[in-house]
Amino acid sequence: MSTAVQIVNKSHHPLPEYATTGSSGMDIRAFLTSPITMAPMERVLIPTGLFLALPENWEAQIRPRSGLAIKQGLTCLNTPGTIDADYRGELKVILINLSNEAQLISDGDRIAQMVFQKVEKVILEKVETLEATERGAGGFGHTGKK
């Protein structure tokens, strides 16, 4: 079953859509008045011209596009970026150039993908200790490399 999400598109680009029936994310495009050249390690906030009204208990996640990352070294910071259900501002994407060369972003370039996710709310319960597990506090590579 699909969930309806209201969208305002102030750009001249088509609405985001799923590229294939198996796609999890919709590609979103840069909405620029002129191209942007990103220097190596430069971060830029890219407008999309898109505005969403998400249903309660839903979020939109902004994620990198794998082709952009491997071919040009461009990826999203704050990944996945969360668009909350009560946010009504323009969707903007934080890109960083991790390559050693300047990279050009032009109007209409597909710069990220948007995945919609239902969000479960929790109630935090303050306790003095936690139940023990086999893993315990082990983390960040505690099981080794091989």
Task: Explain how this protein is built.
The protein has 146 residues and is mainly beta. It has a single domain, classed as Distorted Sandwich (Deoxyuridine 5'-Triphosphate Nucleotidohydrolase, Chain A), CATH 2.70.40. It contains one helix and ten strands; from the N terminus they run βββββαβββββ. The strands form three sheets. The chain has a four-stranded antiparallel beta sheet. A four-stranded antiparallel beta sheet has the order 2-10-5-7, with no helix packed on it. The chain is globular and about 55 Å long.
Task: Give a quick precis of the structure.
The protein has 146 residues and is mainly beta. It has 1 helix and 10 strands.
Chain-wise SSE layout:
Elements: E1 6-9, E2 26-29, E3 36-38, E4 43-53, E5 58-63, H1 66-72, E6 74-76, E7 81-83, E8 90-97, E9 103-105, E10 110-118
Antiparallel strand pairs: 1-4, 2-10, 3-9, 4-8, 5-7, 5-10, 6-8
Classification by helices and strands: mainly beta
What is the typical, i.e. mean, pLDDT?
94
Q: How many separate domains make up the residues?
A: 1
Biggest sheet: strand arrangement: 1-4-8-6
Summarize the helix and strand pattern as letters. Answer: EEEEEHEEEEE
Note the main sheet: 4 strands, antiparallel
Binned, the helix content reads under 10%
